[in-house]
Structures are given as C-alpha cells and as structure tokens.
Write a structure and sequence with these properties.
This protein is α/β, with parallel strands linked by helices and 268 residues long. It has helices spanning 30-39, 55-63, 78-86, 107-118, 135-138, 152-159, 210-218, 223-228, 233-237, 257-267, and strands at 4-10, 24-25, 28-29, 48-52, 67-70, 94-98, 125-131, 145-148, 169-176, 200-208, 242-246. The protein is globular, with a radius of gyration of 18 Å.
C-alpha cells in the first residue's frame, strides 16, 4: 500500500499581504483553514505536516493541534521545504505539496494528484490542471499554462465534468506564463469551449517521490526555469515525466488584501 504524506510549505514573509498565513478570518488563520481542508483528503492517512520557517508559524500550528517541521529560512522554494521534510520521513512513498495560502483547496484535487503519481510507476512528478474558460486568463502571466498532449481520455474527462479524484491525466510538455500553445491561424478565445481543452491552467499542487525530491534539491536551476520563473521547468528540461491530473476549478488563493477580503466575505 502506498504511504502518502501531505506537506504544507509555510513561509512567514509575504510581499503583497503582510504575514498572510497568520491573517485571521472568523477566529482562524489562513494557515489553519488550509490545514483543515488538506486534512480532509483521503490520502491524509498520515495527517498533514506544515514545513515552517519561523517559530511564530510553529506556535500557530501547535495552537490548533497540528504537526510542524522547522525548515531553513533560505529554502528557495516550497519544493525545497518538502524535500527537507522528506529527508526526515523514511518509509513515505509519495509526498504531496499543498500551498499553505489556499484555504479553499479541494481535497478531491489533492487526492487526484497523489493517485495520478502513485498509479504511474514511470512518472517522476504529479501535478494538476483545469481547463481555461476565461479569456482574460490567457494573457495573465500570473496564471501558469501547461501544454499537454490530447489523449482520448482527456476529452471524456472534460465532457463528464472531470476531476473528482479521477485517474484521468495528461502528460506535460511545457509550462509557461504566456498563452501557449500559439494559435497561428485563429483567435485562442475561439478555442475556449473546445473539448478537450486546448488551454489549461496549471495549479500549484504537486506529488513527488523521495528520490525525485533528492534530485530536485541538488540540481541547479535550469535555463528555462530562470527565464519563466517556474520551478517545474527544471523537471521538463531534465527529461522527467510529469503527469497532470485533470481536476475541477482552481481554488482561490490568498495573495493580496483583496483576496483576503473576498475570502472573508465568502466565510460570512
């Protein structure tokens, strides 16, 4: 039986919303909301670990009865924090990286990413994507796009409202902040209703095996990773197999005061 471990990388500093993980809504912090959502995933049999970089975050996790591991403050990415935790967890087969600033993360999406990697012994990295339906998203560099091949199961999945921890997946060819693939002969907006989708929004959910994390933590940043500022391109450039679970709509993360206000309104 595959042993899973969900890890929430948590960094105290944040640029657009000060200490966003400690912001409170109805008496709970953003971090606690995310922890509780992640704990509802089926693959959370071992619980959830928060990979913190500051004692204040550790104190917060303890206040709601959670588990934490202190990681170096200079970790370059959330993946590096997960790698630090993985080194202390012998026996874990798959580690799932859930961003700590997504209090409304769908537990089904977490399960889908975890099982997508677990079910494919040749895959190196699992992640998630959902079809882009908003024209504004095509040109928004904050919405990362993933280019996938179009196996028949993608059409079947999208046509049936895919996600819901399905085993449906594609293989990532490239990730970009640009509108890719480029439509040479038409307007990409005209493709937004196609089944299967042409344009996919990449979600920041990842599943890794420990050996991949050891490789990632020791490998230098790749050229395209430095250009696009997307760490998953390190795997693509190295020829790793990246499988992508088809999931439902993206959860709203907390990055700005406006995001926090909208989340607060939804919790009212």
């Amino acid at each position: 039986m595959t042993r899973f471990q969900i890890v929430l990388p948590a960094r105290l500093a944040s640029s657009r919303l000060s200490e966003k993980l400690l912001q409170r809504v109805n008496g709970k912090t953003v971090l606690q909301y995310t922890y509780e959502s992640a704990s509802r995933a089926k693959v959370a049999q071992q619980g959830v670990i928060v990979a913190v970089d500051h004692p204040r975050l550790a104190d917060e996790v303890e206040s709601f009865g959670g588990r934490w591991v202190m990681t170096p403050a200079d970790c370059a990415s959330g993946t590096d924090r997960v790698a630090h935790v993985a080194a202390q967890l012998p026996g874990v087969d798959v580690l799932v990286n859930v961003q700590s600033d997504e209090p409304e993360i769908d537990p089904d999406s977490i399960d889908a990413v975890a099982m997508t990697l677990s079910d494919d012994s040749e895959a190196d990295l699992g992640t998630a994507a959902t079809p882009i339906i908003d024209p504004a998203a095509l040109t928004d560099p904050g919405i990362v796009k993933v280019v996938m091949g179009q196996p028949a199961e993608l059409a079947a999945a999208q046509g049936s409202g895919a996600g819901q921890s399905s085993a449906v997946k594609g293989r990532a060819v490239y990730f970009s902040r640009a509108c890719v693939p480029f439509d040479r002969d038409g307007d990409p907006v005209d493709r937004l209703q196609q089944v299967p989708a042409t344009y996919w929004h990449h979600l920041g959910l990842y599943a890794y095996r420990p050996d991949f994390l050891r490789w990632f933590a020791s490998a230098p940043q790749s050229y395209l990773e430095r250009v696009e500022k997307l760490e998953q391109l390190r795997a693509i450039e190295a020829g790793k197999k990246v499988v992508v679970a088809v999931v439902g709509p993206a959860a709203s993360g907390i990055d700005t005061p406006a995001d926090l206000a909208a989340f607060r309104a939804r919790q009212a």
